[in-house]
Amino acid sequence: MSAPERYDVIVVGGGPAGSTTAAFLAKAGRRVLLFEREAFPRFHVGESLLPSTLPIFDRLGVHATLAERGFQVKHGAAFHDQESGLEHTFYFLKDKPWPSYAYQVPRAEFDTILLEHATKLGVDVRQPATVESVAFDAEGVSATVESHGQRAAARGRFLVDASGRAGLLSVRVGRRERVPNLGKVALFAHFGGAWRAPAPDEGNIRIYVFEDGWFWWIPLAGARTSVGCVMHARTVREWGGPLDALYAEMIRRCRRVAEGLRGAERLTPVHTEANFAYRNAPVVGDRFLAVGDAVAFVDPIFSGGVHIAMQSAELAAHAIDRALGDGRFEAQRFAAYERRVWRGLRPFFKFIHKYYEPAFLELFLKPRGAFGMIDAVLSVLSGGAFLGMRWRTRASLALLFALARANVWVRRRAGRPVESRLEW
Ligand SMILES: Cc1cc2nc3c(=O)[nH]c(=O)nc-3n(C[C@H](O)[C@H](O)[C@H](O)COP(=O)(O)OP(=O)(O)OC[C@H]3O[C@@H](n4cnc5c(N)ncnc54)[C@H](O)[C@@H]3O)c2cc1C
């Protein structure tokens, strides 16, 4: 058998993280081989994008193609708490390094566009092809790949783990640390003919918080709406029946969702995801690094997943290109990449823990412009943390968290609930 052709980089996974890393490396003139185990288009959760991702589309050269598809545009995010009746819509701010809008995308279509773009830029995409194992040596990395019942070998100088929640490297050679108390379960489906807000709010994501968890309501183009319920683990534990019936029961319990779906028709099966909050290790090593969900995932409430995937991918591609330039691939060379990724992820981890505290949620839904607090929250929620946070933003967030601590005390004195919903 002849030796496999040698590539600069092997990428495992063709989701947003994999296709973006591969595309940027191909743009830099590198030879890239990408394996994706599923045939596209395929259904995937994660349809609401953030404004800070749009400049990445520009740098990739794929924005015009995406814009032509007529994806639903969103201008903000509306939050509603059933218990208190509080409601607030956050509109993305103007005068930021990113636009004041984003898209809602069916991922089957979006991921296909990104992967086709990578192919156009010269990435060798093999699909469906599953990477079964990888082995590193002093000169490079070998992968064993299964496709259509056949096994083949591939050889590269460097490996990118973009395998998403499957976490190829963390599961085989590293470890996965679950985030305590975020053992949530999500059930979701697409509907036709659901309620739409009047313009200009018709495309905004809506988050409905209720006793058993929270719903996302993502209006997609063409009168299709993605409706997903993220439930506390105890709600699922206490339920003995089938998941479809649990989903229907959650819709019944969340009044805004039940009203919005009156007369609507379910177009897809009910999908499920469980236990999706974790951190993986290692993120970087000699001749490899991980991007996107293969690094960590916290909670979908702030729609950060695709942005984290694509932003980490762009940073990774630059670091790998430099390493290829001088032929040195030791883990230390990628330490700065890893630091930047955690810096971008940290605010999402911090916010999610706060978000489930009623005292914080109350302040969040009655936001005050004083001391730049709304600006700071929106900066984080738009994905700005990867670009670095100015001291003013950090100070404003610290103030918001301090006010939330004070509100715990106020609520306790008034005999109102303070228990974090994370514990549920
Ligand atoms: C309930 C829920 C709701 C969410 N909502 C949002 C949202 O509204 N907005 C948002 O931005 N994010 C959301 N996310 C997160 C988002 O789905 C992910 O963060 C995003 O898809 C990560 O992209 P990725 O490329 O890292 O991984 P993926 O998109 O999962 O891509 C990984 C790819 O790797 C392939 N693969 C895996 N193993 C192998 C292998 N061995 N060989 C070859 N290929 C392989 C898989 O087939 C897959 O296509 C949500 C997540 C959950 C769980």
Descriptive terms for the model:
eight-stranded mixed beta sheet, FAD/NAD(P)-binding domain, single chain, D-Amino Acid Oxidase, Chain A, domain 2, 424 residues, alpha+beta, 21 strands, binds flavin-adenine dinucleotide
Notes on the structure:
- The protein has 424 residues and is an alpha+beta fold.
- The chain has three domains: 6-71 and 106-178 and 279-343, FAD/NAD(P)-binding domain (3-Layer(bba) Sandwich), CATH 3.50.50.60; 185-274, 2-Layer Sandwich (D-Amino Acid Oxidase, Chain A, domain 2); 357-423, no CATH class.
- Helices cover 35% and strands 25% of the residues.
- The strands form four sheets. Strands 1, 2, 7, 8, 9, 10, 19 and 20 form an eight-stranded mixed sheet that branches.
- α12 (373-381) crosses α13.
- The mean pLDDT is 91.
- The structure holds flavin-adenine dinucleotide.
- Flavin-adenine dinucleotide binds next to α1, β8 and α9.
What's the gist of this structure?
This protein is α+β, with helices and mostly antiparallel strands and 424 residues long. Helix content is 35%, strand content 25%.
